[in-house]
Recover the amino acids of this structure.
């Protein structure tokens, strides 16, 4: 039995689970989703990433199964190439949203090449489970979509976008908007994988014709239809990237 005469002692604020899950502590939870990944990336020596976006619904056995196999093969080739670079840091680590479909394929290909691979998973009402190919210490779980997207952009040196739905479009347009508005301190090559799909889903020329984007905005991305072409495009843009610290952040430009 507890001593009724003992003084009542409340838990310290940082040990108070009720407070930490409250609306008032939301800024602390947001900050934790920045600082905890930062600590792990530093500890594991991850310098920069190549991000794969694409649908969780594109399975190996489905009608668009070739995209699963292409994502797997491209991630494998990138990892083999990056492991041969003269750096003690982990360069161009494959990063995905951590789920199934294209995300699984990307993590799988990198893992099969003996590389580390990152999964930035998101907690959803319909549970999205991390795929089994993510390196354990680089498997993350986010509550806030915007913090997850920050980490996609923060370390990205390139982006490969496979066919996908609303989530893929959202993530792709986030990076294209940052590039178009020159908010990033470095260029991030964007490869749209599957020209036929992307040309049908988004009529970029129509955006130019209606004046909602400029023609030079079409230079923000390139197309690829096979792993060899995609790898060549990435290598041509990334081979001369300078050495930097760990992690190598894409900083925002200060307003002028």
């Amino acid at each position: 039995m507890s001593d009724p005469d003992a003084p009542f002692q409340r838990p310290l604020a940082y040990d108070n689970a009720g407070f930490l899950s409250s609306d008032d502590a939301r800024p602390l939870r947001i900050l934790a989703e920045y600082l905890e990944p930062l600590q792990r990336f530093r500890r594991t020596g991850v310098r920069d990433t190549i991000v794969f976006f694409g649908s969780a619904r594109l399975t190996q056995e489905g009608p668009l199964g070739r995209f699963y196999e292409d994502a797997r093969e491209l991630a494998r080739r990138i990892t083999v190439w990056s492991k041969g670079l003269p750096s003690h840091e982990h360069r161009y680590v494959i990063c995905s949203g951590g789920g199934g479909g294209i995300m699984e394929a990307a993590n799988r290909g990198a893992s099969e090449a003996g590389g580390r691979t990152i999964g930035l998973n998101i907690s959803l009402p319909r549970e999205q489970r991390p795929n089994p190919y993510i390196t354990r210490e680089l498997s993350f779980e986010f509550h806030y979509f915007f913090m997850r997207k920050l980490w996609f952009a923060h370390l990205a040196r390139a982006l490969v976008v496979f066919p996908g739905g609303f989530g893929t479009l959202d993530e792709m347009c986030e990076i294209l908007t940052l590039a178009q508005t020159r908010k990033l301190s470095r260029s991030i090559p964007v490869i749209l994988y599957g020209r036929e799909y992307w040309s049908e889903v988004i009529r970029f020329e129509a955006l130019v014709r209606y004046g909602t984007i400029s023609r030079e905005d079409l230079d923000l991305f390139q197309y690829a239809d096979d792993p060899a072409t995609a790898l060549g495009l990435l290598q041509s843009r990334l081979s001369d990237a300078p050495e930097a610290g760990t992690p190598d952040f894409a900083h925002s430009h200060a307003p002028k």
User: Anything to note?
Assistant: Residues 46-238 form a domain with the Rossmann fold fold (CATH 3.40.50.450). The radius of gyration is 21 Å. The chain has nine helices and seven strands. The first helix runs from residue 17 to 20.
